[in-house]
Write the structure tokens for this entry.
Amino acid sequence: MKNLRYTSVTTLFMLLLMSLVYACDDNQNELASDTLVVQDVTQEEIKALQFMLEEEKLARDTYSYLGSLWSVNQFKNIKSSEQTHMDAIENLMIQNNIEYTILPPGQFKDDTLQQLYDTFVVDGTTDVVSALKIGATIEDLDIVDLQNYMDATTNPAIITVFERLQCGSRNHLKSFVFGIENNLGTYTPQYLSQDAYESILSQNRERCY
């Protein structure tokens, strides 16, 4: 009985730990939290983390708004995943005493991100295909920006987090494109090269951890 109780407690602990580390999007596990300490972080790396935190917020806020207009699974499921992405960056910043600000929904410190959000919430009201194309565009942008920041740093902690977020964005892009095509629409990449875009679509869904 004692051994059984010990085994049950151990199993419960492991399940709890896994629930803290991974979040689910369309049955796809993604990074939620890691203890990754950034050593000797540079000002450019701080700016990268601050910007990507807001870019993931752009995705979350846009999907939340569009999800209130259109009853499609992509917005509901991926919105939750974008919160997980924000949490991953936020946890890394907290662990390393990096200052950051998260404004209310629909508000952004970065002017470019604010302009994108303002455009997306207007264009996304047209029809469901337009809304899904906005989702694809955000993930398209996210993949490219994450890659640019990874190319500019050698910091393993930042690279680890950004690689996992980029993996999630590739899955999200495929989900949005599937929705577009299922509604007889097409998507042309706005930021990715055509070759990179086609390569992503040709791959199976990835496990992002």
In short: The helical segments are 2-21, 43-67, 73-95, 111-123, 128-151, 156-182, 194-202. Residues 41 and 155 are 8 Å apart (CA to CA). The mean pLDDT is 86. The longest strand covers residues 22-25.
